[in-house]
Each structure stands twice: as structure tokens, then as C-alpha cells.
Design brief:
heterodimer, A: alpha/beta, 10-stranded mixed β-sheet, 6-stranded parallel beta barrel, 11 helices, 24 strands, about 35% strand, B: about 240 residues, alpha/beta, Rossmann fold, 6-stranded mixed β-sheet
Chain lengths: ~475, ~240
């Protein structure tokens, strides 16, 4: 009486490549490369100077090595730092002028860009390798004074805002990968919400890596002015390739008085194959500053892709009564590795932070939660609540929880809870006996485990994320 | 409905069922009684297709062999097991779970998926019938349920999935008299000339509420005695030692 679960696990369905002529920067990391990027993006001199400053800093900065997942040395001279479809060089004025191949690529990814088909209620900025291809709903947003555009456009058209805020949360000297990004960043999104404005739709950026031997260095900057609100979501995919590709993004958020930013990520970069060949190195710096009083920044991440995920979306709670939240699901299967968590730096009085982390590990994968809660001397009456749950599937995977906790005043409280559990056979048997097959049962149980985080996602994406959770774990039990 | 011939089942080389024979016709309710360790739960597990057992002998359901049929397919074909210890699944809404389950069964039968509104109506109807609180369905599956609530939830699922062959694995254990009555009413109101029941129990108590057509005594992996409900009453007096 064998269990007949012959479901073949769904392969990574975003693994296709778009055949397209590219313009590339000269191979390798050099002043020449940086000048090339700055020139092709028609940047003002101050921007180039900023990049070169970062590059000089990079020369004396050292690649960190304290993380749990180790990786072979990256040869930075063997990478392309800029790659963009040739057709984008002429700056198409409308979508009609954009190469149909690019539109088709996004259709295949389920992100229609054309006027008739675009997603309702979601404005999308589509970034392909190193350039933004299109941004939808721009006019409607402009009417409200909201700026949502590629960052390279913002550098040219809103220099005062970019100058004021770029690098103000993640300084160019922050750490190796942040410095690298500051020197060579290509595209990403820029968002500005004017005072007392509630952004009427979800803003979303879809990142696609296409070209081989190319790193993607996106830069995103979101500013929520006083009393404003914005919900932003990013998604990402890449073709299947045997070599590892580097993705080193910087994301900066600034929330002024009474403003709120909700930032959600569904990360589905190519994870490599069953044996751990290929996949993206996702080394990302994400940080938000709750600069004003009563401001709030909430990070939600669903990390299912990448060979290695290494990131700590953080909140600096400067304003009194500000709130930082971090909701995370990190799923690692086969040979994937993740070292992820958050930093909550409490500086203002009565600041609150909440961390809910769900790590799921299957196959030979390794999953680490690493988090810092630091309550400063002047951050009186502050609170943190942390809950880290790990779920293990099988006997070859690992889960680790590494919390760093610092409380420097006596009026603040920190709570930390952690659990580790396994999907048990009784749960699977129960679901099977009610007619669900093995894959469906696992998906149901894991989605239940992740529920607290999934319900933080915007409605439009929650369903997709639930499916993704199931697909990522296919073939992991049975 | 169910034809078991010379069934042997072992786990980790330990033989638990040793040549078991039972035949259940549509509309019949069979009770299986037996002391601890006689193989009662193993029988329930083997019928539902649980892995880990080495099996020989014949196991036919609706005229077809169950060999090589997985747990979920058996469930879809109308075999329902009411668990002795229904497991908790945190974060999973009871009502959603039940709907997913019902749709799997319906799909296997070539029926359309049930829409949300019809499902709510069905829930309302069945919970009222069983005298249960609908609110239970908004909670996480079996999480924080009392023993009685868990068993009632099993009976509700049985009602909604409308299976052909129902196995109750010591559903009466740990129930107070009110919960026992709800469970028994649920079973009795489901009985018709098409459904078959296999009621596994320690005690005669349940059989005061559910009238069996046949009673079998399972001892040491074999049916050692079969009879009608009088046998259960006799057992109550003499104990299992009095049989053989």
C-alpha cells in the first residue's frame, strides 16, 4: 500500500530568458564603469561625485564575513554593472514606443503594463536589469502631487528631494555592499508622498534580472511627508542560470511626523536548482527612519527565492511615539540559505517595535533569524515584542535564532519568544484523510504557520504569496 | 461495501493484525470492541491507508481493491475516519479547512466546487442539526478545543463530507454524557441504507446510544467472536477475559 504521490514539483516558472540586444557598461568595477553609468543616465555632476566618493570608500572597505551562509569569493571585476535593452536607450516617451519584447516579458510574469490590461488599484514601476521600462498610473498620481518614478528620473527632475534624502538613512560608508550599491546603483523607484496625502493605490516595483554575468544594484527611496500614508510592494524574479548572480540593493525609507509607510516584499529570485547550482545572491540593505513623531514603518517580507538571502530590513525609531514593525516569512528549500531578520533601534521616547518572524526550512537548507533590538538611554517607556518561530521539514535542514538585545534604560521592556517545531505526521495524516494530497497538506499547514505574517500583505498579493509558499516547498515531504 | 479477508498488518516487524475477516454491507453498523493493544486503532489506520504498515490479505471497498490507493484518494472515494485524537493545526481556519476538504471530495466525484454562500448555508444546517455552536468554525482547526469539541468537530465534518464508509475510532473516549449524545445523534441521523459504519470502542456505553447490527470482539489481532448487540452487553458483564 504505497502512497501514490507522484506530483512532480512545479519548476521555477519565471526562469525564462528574454533574447534582447543590450547595452552594457565595460566589464568590471572601475571609475570608468561608474562614469559610464552616470553618463548614460544623464546625471548631474553632484550625483557622479557622490558615486565616486562611494567608490573611493569602497576601495578601503572590506567585504563582511560574519554571516552564517558562506559563499565563494565574488570576482567583482568579472561582472557587468550596467545592462539595459538597447531600445531603452532612446527613452521611449510612451508605452507604444517600448520594445514589445519587454512588454511581453512582463505579461509572462503576470505584470501587464499596457493601458487596457494594467492591474487595477496598483501602480507598477517595471525595472528590467538596469533600467525602468515603464511606470503605470503616473498621471493619476501626479494629480495628487505624488511622485512615483524611476530613481534616475528623480535625480534629474527632483534633485532637491534626492539630495536631501539619498544616503540619509544608509550612509555611503555604511558597509561594503551598501557602499558598492552607492557607487554603481542603476535603477529603482523613487516615491514622494506630499503632506497629509493618503496614496490612493498600492505602489509597486517589479524587478527583473535578465542579462547574464550582470549584477543588479537597485536603489529605492521612499519619502512620506508629514501626515501621509503609502503602501509599497516589490516583487522580483530572474532567469535560471548555472552561475550565481549578485543582487545588492539599497532601500531607504523616511517617514516624517505622523506619516506611515508600509513596505512589502515578495522575493522570488531564482533559488538555484535542486543540487544548489546557480541562483541569486540577495545581499540587500533595507532601512527605514521614523524621523518624525508618531510615525510608523512596517516591513513585511516573504522571502522564498535566492540561493542566499542576507538582509535585515530595519527601523530607526527617532521620533517620539514612533512605531516599527517587521513581519517576515523566510522559506528555504533544497540548498538555499537565509540569514535574515531586523534591527529595531529605539531612540525616541515611547517608541514601540514588533517583530514576527517565521522561518521554514526544508531539504538541506539553512535558515537563520538574526535580529537586534537596541533601546537607547533616552528612549524611555519603549517596548519591543519579538516572536521567532521556526518550522523544520525533514532531518537535514537547520534553523537558528540569534537575537541581540540591548536595553539601556529601566523604563522600557523587551519580550522575546522563540519556538522550533516540525511538521508532524499526525497533521499530514489528518489532512490526507480529509482528501488533501501531500503537497496540499504541506501548503495548508505552512500557510497556517505563516498566517500572522501573510495577513499583513496587501490583499492583491496575499493570495499570490500563499500559493508561492506552497510551491516553494513542493517535493520537500513525502 | 467493505470486504476484509485474512488481513495481516505489521509495523516494525511486529505483527498486529493476524488474519482478520470482516464483511460490511451498505446500511450496516458494525461495532468492534476489544481490550487495549488488540489492534483496534491499527485497523482504523490500515483502512484509511496510513503509511508505515506492512500489509497482506485482501481489502476491498465497493468491489475494488484498496491496495495502492493513497490516503487522500480513499478519503475522496468516501472513506471517513473520525480520529481518536484529532490533531491541532494552528493558523488554519476550521471553516476554510472544511470547505477545502469538501471541495476535494466533490471534485473527485465530478461535482462543481461549492460556492461560499451555499457552504455557509450547509454549515448552518448541519450545526443546527447537531445542536452545535457555529462559532467553533471560526476558530483555528482543533486549536484550544476541548476533548468534546474536537469529537463534535469530527462528527460535523462527517456530516458535511457525506462519506460512504465511516470509521469511528474510539470517538466516545473522554466524552461527557452531553457530548456523547451529540456524537450518537450525529451518527444515528446519518444512518441510511447506503452508508456503513465501523464503530471502534472500548466500552459498551456508546452502544446504548448507537444500536449496532453486529458486534465483533477483537483480541490479539483477530476477530474472536461475532454476534449482535447482546454480545456487547454480555461483554460488559464478563469482561474480555470471559470471551475465547
Amino acid at each position: 500500500m504505497k502512497n501514490q504521490n507522484t506530483n512532480i514539483s512545479e519548476e521555477y516558472k519565471y526562469g525564462f530568458t528574454t533574447e534582447i540586444d543590450n547595452i552594457k557598461a565595460p566589464k568590471g568595477l572601475s571609475e570608468e564603469t561608474i562614469k559610464f553609468i552616470s553618463k548614460i543616465k544623464k546625471e548631474p555632476k553632484w550625483m557622479l561625485d557622490w558615486r565616486l566618493k562611494a567608490f573611493n570608500r569602497l576601495k578601503v572597505s572590506k567585504e563582511p564575513n560574519w554571516q552564517k551562509p558562506k559563499y565563494p569569493k565574488i570576482n567583482y571585476q568579472d561582472l557587468y554593472y550596467y545592462s539595459a535593452p538597447k531600445s531603452m536607450n532612446d527613452k521611449p516617451k510612451s508605452l507604444d514606443e517600448v520594445d514589445p519584447k519587454l512588454i511581453e516579458t512582463y505579461n509572462k510574469l503576470g505584470i501587464p503594463l499596457t493601458e487596457q490590461k494594467k492591474l487595477s488599484g496598483v501602480a507598477v514601476d517595471a525595472v528590467f536589469d538596469s533600467v525602468s521600462v515603464a511606470t503605470t498610473f503616473k498621471d493619476e498620481l501626479t494629480k495628487k502631487g505624488i511622485i512615483f518614478c524611476p530613481i534616475s528620473e528623480a535625480i534629474r527632475e527632483h534633485p532637491e528631494l534626492v539630495k536631501k534624502y539619498l544616503g540619509s538613512v544608509i550612509p555611503i560608508s555604511d558597509h561594503y555592499f551598501a557602499t558598492l550599491n552607492s557607487a554603481v546603483f542603476t535603477d529603482g523607484s523613487f516615491v514622494y508622498i506630499p503632506p497629509n496625502t493618503r496614496c490612493p493605490m498600492e505602489l509597486s516595483t517589479y524587478f527583473r534580472i535578465n542579462a547574464a554575468e550582470t549584477g543588479q544594484f537597485e536603489r529605492t527611496l521612499i519619502i512620506a511627508d508629514k501626515g501621509s500614508y503609502v503602501s509599497y510592494l516589490e516583487g522580483c524574479t530572474a532567469p535560471m542560470r548555472d552561475e550565481n548572480q549578485l543582487h545588492a540593493a539599497n532601500v531607504e525609507l523616511v517617514a516624517l511626523d505622523d506619516a506611515e509607510i508600509k513596505y512589502s516584499t515578495v522575493q522570488n529570485w531564482y533559488p538555484g536548482d535542486k543540487d544548489g547550482v546557480g541562483g541569486i545572491y540577495n545581499f540587500v540593505t533595507k532601512r527605514g527612519a521614523c524621523r518624525g513623531k508618531n510615525s510608523k514603518i512596517s516591513w513585511t517580507q516573504v522571502e522564498t527565492g535566492s540561493a542566499i538571502t542576507w538582509k535585515y530590513p530595519s527601523c530607526i525609531l527617532q521620533g517620539d511615539n514612533s512605531v516599527g514593525e517587521f513581519y517576515s516569512i523566510a522559506i528555504t528549500n533544497n540548498h538555499q540559505k537565509a540569514d535574515t531578520g531586523t534591527k529595531m533601534i529605539h531612540l525616541g521616547k515611547n517608541t514601540k517595535s514588533k517583530i514576527i518572524s517565521k522561518g521554514i526550512s526544508a531539504g538541506n537548507a539553512d535558515n537563520t533569524y538574526r535580529g537586534l533590538v537596541d533601546i537607547g538611554r533616552k528612549a524611555l517607556n519603549s517596548r519591543n515584542y519579538t516572536q521567532c518561530d521556526s518550522l523544520l521539514m525533514g532531518n537535514k535542514c537547520g534553523a537558528h535564532t540569534v537575537p541581540y538585545i540591548k536595553n539601556k534604560n529601566s523604563s522600557s521592556t523587551i519580550e522575546h519568544e522563540a519556538t522550533t517545531s516540525k511538521i508532524n505526521d499526525d497533521q499530514l495524516f489528518y489532512c490526507n484523510q480529509r482528501g488533501l494530497n501531500q503537497e496540499e497538506a504541506v501548503s495548508l499547514i505552512v500557510n497556517g504557520f505563516c498566517k500572522d505574517v501573510l495577513q499583513q500583505l496587501p490583499m492583491e498579493f496575499a493570495v499570490e504569496a500563499q500559493k508561492l509558499v506552497g510551491i516553494s516547498l513542493e517535493g520537500s515531504v513525502g | 461495501m467493505l470486504e476484509i479477508k485474512d488481513l495481516n498488518a505489521s509495523i516494525n516487524d511486529k505483527l498486529i493484525l493476524k488474519g482478520l475477516n470482516i464483511s460490511i454491507k451498505p446500511g450496516e453498523l458494525h461495532a468492534i470492541m476489544g481490550p487495549n493493544g488488540s489492534g483496534k486503532s491499527t485497523l482504523a489506520n490500515v483502512l484509511s491507508g496510513k503509511e508505515g504498515y506492512n500489509i497482506s490479505g485482501e481489502l476491498n471497498y465497493l468491489g475494488k481493491s484498496l491496495n495502492e490507493i493513497s490516503i487522500d484518494e480513499r478519503a475522496q472515494k468516501g472513506i471517513f475516519l473520525a480520529f481518536q485524537y484529532p490533531t491541532e493545526i494552528p493558523g488554519v481556519n476550521t471553516s476554510n479547512f472544511l470547505r477545502t476538504s469538501l471541495n476535494k471530495v466533490r471534485k473527485a466525484q465530478g461535482k462543481k466546487e461549492i460556492d461560499a454562500l451555499s457552504f455557509l448555508k450547509l454549515i448552518k444546517e448541519k450545526t443546527t442539526e447537531l445542536g452545535m455552536d457555529e462559532k467553533m468554525l471560526t476558530r483555528q482547526l482543533n486549536v484550544g478545543f476541548s476533548g468534546g469539541e474536537k469529537k463534535k468537530n469530527e462528527i460535523l465534518q462527517m456530516k458535511i463530507l457525506d462519506p460512504n464508509l465511516i470509521i469511528l475510532d474510539e470517538t466516545d473516549s473522554g466524552l461527557d454524557i452531553d457530548a456523547l449524545r451529540i456524537v450518537a445523534d450525529g451518527v444515528n441521523s446519518s444512518r441510511d441504507n447506503k452508508k456503513s459504519f465501523l464503530v471502534i470502542t472500548h466500552y459498551q456505553r456508546l452502544l446504548n446510544f448507537i444500536k449496532p447490527d453486529f458486534v465483533h470482539v477483537l483480541s490479539n489481532g483477530k476477530i474472536v467472536k461475532s454476534g449482535n448487540k447482546e454480545l456487547a452487553i454480555q461483554l460488559e458483564k464478563t469482561g474480555y477475559k470471559g470471551i475465547n
